[in-house]
Amino acid sequence: MKEFKAVILSSDAHEYRDILLAEALPGLSIEICRDVEQAEPHLADCDIMFGTPALVSPLISRAPRLKWVQSMWAGITPFLVPGMRRDYILTGVKEVFGPMMAEYVICHMLIHERRFLHRFQSQLVKQWDTTPPGTLMGKYVGIMGIGSIGRAIAGAAKFFGMKTRGFSRTQTQCKNIDCCYLFRELTSFVKGLDYLVCVLPETADTTGLIDDALLQAMPDTALIINVGRGNVIHEPSLIRALENGNIAGAVLDVFQEEPLPPDHGFWETPNTLITSHTAALSFPGEIAPIFVENYQRFINHEALMYQIDFEHGY
């Protein structure tokens, strides 16, 4: 049987290696690296890379035998830089982050409805706060991006009796989505929303979708939650909308530049909660099985799961 050499690039490389070794994958030799420097000696005869995009992407051009890259993250933007090599199979991660993302989104919608942050401020000044809370029941949530993560969020929203809208490039119907909107219907999509949840990938088409015009079309009671990619939001527009009270608030997990610079306006923007790209982390026990399944497909010359289309960017 043909032998393949895989390089694992991750701060959790040892844990990933132990999982893969337990699977006794045929014909696979494994090298583990925690950084780019450790990977350098293994690039010349590397067939497969399994790692985080930030570590793997700088090495693509230096691995002449490379045939397949399995990302450990849902986001694959570092692999899509114009001019980068594309003569290999790139596979992403799906059907993993949905439950964690749904948990995050529902958590912050409940915090907003139940006024938890306001009540905590009242507690700090020993004030008995009897302001009536809201409820998710009957509220409108618009989900930008109705892939596996968006569908999981929609299912959780339905559990709480919410009314759901979906926004997609091509889809016109989806489970747990009451009504789907296409790109040309973006303004209609956001009108009347109580919550706008962004889970879109980073592509040329999604950059700057949430701008001044769109924010002005939203109710001033709406809350934006972004767990997708930072490029979707035109950041100066959102800061203006929050400062002027055009929307109720924003929960932001992702940004155009990460870590968010200390002098960025978001740190001091009112009604803004920053969660530092922690909405859904990659855990080896959940990601490694995707590699295992795809490796079996790879050696059997079958189509791999979650293959990325370089042109579309997802």
From TrEMBL:
GO terms for molecular function: NAD binding; oxidoreductase activity. The keyword Oxidoreductase applies. InterPro entries: D-isomer_DH_NAD-bd (IPR006140), NAD(P)-bd_dom_sf (IPR036291). Residues 108-279 form the D-isomer specific 2-hydroxyacid dehydrogenase NAD-binding domain. Gene3D superfamilies: NAD(P)-binding Rossmann-like Domain (3.40.50.720). This is Phosphoglycerate dehydrogenase. It comes from Desulfocicer vacuolatum DSM 3385. It comes from the Bacteria. The keyword NAD applies. Keywords: NAD, Oxidoreductase.
